[in-house]
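Suppose you are handed a protein chain with no further information: no name, no annotation, nothing but its sequence. What can you learn? This example shows the usual starting point.
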Amino acid sequence: MKISFHKVELKKRFPLAISRGIRYHSENIFVRFEKDGLIGWGEAAPGDTEGASTPEAVQQALEKFVATGIEGYSIQALYDRAREMKTPPCAYVGLDIALWDWTAKKSTNAPLSVARLSKGTYTNLRNHRNQSTRGSKRTHTSYYGRLINKVS
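A reasonable first move is to predict its three-dimensional structure. Written in C-alpha cells, the prediction is:
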C-alpha cells in the first residue's frame, strides 16, 4: 500500500462568486492510494471553518491520520476513527474518495463506478458523513458498514 499527496493549483474556467468573494483559482490536495496494482484517487479542498485552511494543513492532517495505520480497516471504521481523532472533514474526504475509487476498481475484473458498486441509486450515495438523510432511515453505519468489509 502506498499513499501520496499532490498539491494542484486549479484555475477556474469561470470565476466562482459566492458570499465570501470571488475565486479565480484554488489549491487542492489530490490523494493517490495504490495497492495491488490499482490506484484510487481522491481530492480534498481546504476549509477555513473545518480546521485545515491551507493545502499544507490538509496534507498534514492526512499524514497524521494515515500514520495511525489504515490497512485492514473498513472504510466505515476509518471514517469513525477520523471523527474520533477530529481529523478535519475537508481533509479526510480526500482519503475517503480515494478508498472508494480504489474499492470500485477492485470490485470486479471490469472496474465499477461507486454508483454501480452501491447498487446505483442516489439514496445509497447521499453524503455519508450526514448521519440522518432527509427522511431516510438508512445511515452511513447501517449501509456502508455492510457494503465494504475491509480495505484489503
